[in-house]
């Protein structure tokens, strides 16, 4: 059996795949956004110094980093509705179950990233802010968080990429994301290579976009007065002649 | 402000602080009048920074009083009796005390102008435009009018410290604390920072300066205090202090820094 490019191309350009990709992106981005909010609160709890908050948040992180994400998805989709009648409604769709699962998992990972980012901001920074009369909340928002964000961006980018890949696990609860779309193509034709390759292209494209956006964000946060860190501009009033192009 | 010759602007009495079992400050007393400059000398670990942090309300004292312009700092006396001030109240009381750190501690994510303007907008609720104008003017005053859009990492240590001075000064504090402001600087950059501090002193700013710059202390200070293991062991005008130090430990300290 040869690789049939027309099957591959048809799959790649089909609406099903586009929909699957959109669903995967939507799920990953939402889970990350909610995970960052929840993770931030957990991180604050972990560095609060209050015993019960530290314990509670540490247990949370331990549990959700320890359990396989696949198991959490199955628990959310199959087990939870058996225990909680309210979840038996139609509103509790595979998408919602997957979103909750991935959010809970990402919150645990983001809590660790945010915690270490907050702790790695130089202690002199909040000290100087407080000395200027900023309240603890103002100090956090104006001084500590902006610096923590810069530290947290690279690992957060990796987590977003992980989350995008994790969305494929939601195929087990029949969410029609990319991998489910590929599987259903496979199940009628047995053309594994073509349908999986099409899915692979989408994942790679999405991850590439994330990487580019991340690099741009990092460039924005260089904290210099120049747009691009390159050769210093000549001072006004000085004339530089560079006839031979030696400085290029 | 009319500098009073009788009442001290700031007085500290029986100020004490321990970290664990170590008593770092053992009940320190001194006072400073408006417009005065006090230089503080002392060996490493003698508690100089700790005292400045207590006066700046960055840490709570175990014991003792800090009174600024007749008001006791670090306590809440609004209900007739004195209780420990909340973090918010401390933030409010800190407005009157400026602090300049050894490591500058400029905010790296803001340019010089916004470093200086931040507390004006956030703490004093000055409108953004006016705050930026005031910040620009203050940067001019420390000789950095042409550097206002540079970020801290683009400035030399001396320039950063001058921005830090402008940042404290723009809030119009009644007293300015300096914790070894030139110790982190290359020798050739020390002068520009000391020059700014001297001109502040000449303009009547009340300053407490922890420093190892003997020359500065001689030229600028009205009084020099010697710290030793958590206590002030000697306190005199510069001429007496450097010319005929009374305490043996002062003599030995001075022979080492000179
Ligand atoms: N937060 C803290 N926790 C525990 N110990 C501390 C703390 N801050 C300071 N110390 C200790 O208190 C002592 C005095 O410190 P301090 O910084 O006040 O000294 P200093 O006179 O400013 O010295 P230096 O010239 O080195 O700056 C030191 O032994 C230091 O280790
Ligand atoms: Mg010190």
Automatic annotation (TrEMBL), chain A:
The keyword Endoplasmic reticulum does not apply. This is Amino acid ABC transporter permease protein. It comes from Arthrobacter globiformis (strain ATCC 8010 / DSM 20124 / JCM 1332 / NBRC 12137 / NCIMB 8907 / NRRL B-2979 / 168). Keywords: Amino-acid transport, Cell membrane, Membrane, Transmembrane, Transmembrane helix, Transport. Belongs to the binding-protein-dependent transport system permease family. Its main location: membrane. PANTHER family: L-CYSTINE TRANSPORT SYSTEM PERMEASE PROTEIN TCYL, MEMBRANE COMPONENT OF AMINO ACID ABC TRANSPORTER. CDD domains: TM_PBP2 (cd06261). One of its GO terms (biological process) is amino acid transport. Residues 228-248 are annotated as: Disordered. Residues 21-214 form the ABC transmembrane type-1 domain. The chain crosses the membrane at residues 20-45, 52-79, 91-111, 195-217. PROSITE patterns: ABC_TM1 (PS50928). InterPro entries: AA_ABC_transptr_permease_3TM (IPR010065), ArtM/GltK/GlnP/TcyL/YhdX-like (IPR043429), MetI-like (IPR000515), MetI-like_sf (IPR035906). One of its GO terms (molecular function) is transmembrane transporter activity. GO terms for cellular component: ATP-binding cassette (ABC) transporter complex. It is a multi-pass membrane protein.
TrEMBL record, chain B:
Residues 10-254 form the ABC transporter domain. Keywords: ATP-binding, Nucleotide-binding, Transport. It comes from the Bacteria. Gene3D superfamilies: P-loop containing nucleotide triphosphate hydrolases (3.40.50.300). GO terms for molecular function: ABC-type amino acid transporter activity; ATP binding; ATP hydrolysis activity. InterPro entries: AAA+_ATPase, ABC_ATPase_HisP-typ, ABC_transporter-like_ATP-bd, ABC_transporter-like_CS, MetN_ABC_transporter-like, P-loop_NTPase. PROSITE patterns: ABC_TRANSPORTER_1, ABC_TRANSPORTER_2. Belongs to the ABC transporter superfamily. This is Amino acid ABC transporter ATP-binding protein. It comes from Arthrobacter globiformis (strain ATCC 8010 / DSM 20124 / JCM 1332 / NBRC 12137 / NCIMB 8907 / NRRL B-2979 / 168). The lineage of its organism: Bacteria, Bacillati, Actinomycetota, Actinomycetes, Micrococcales.
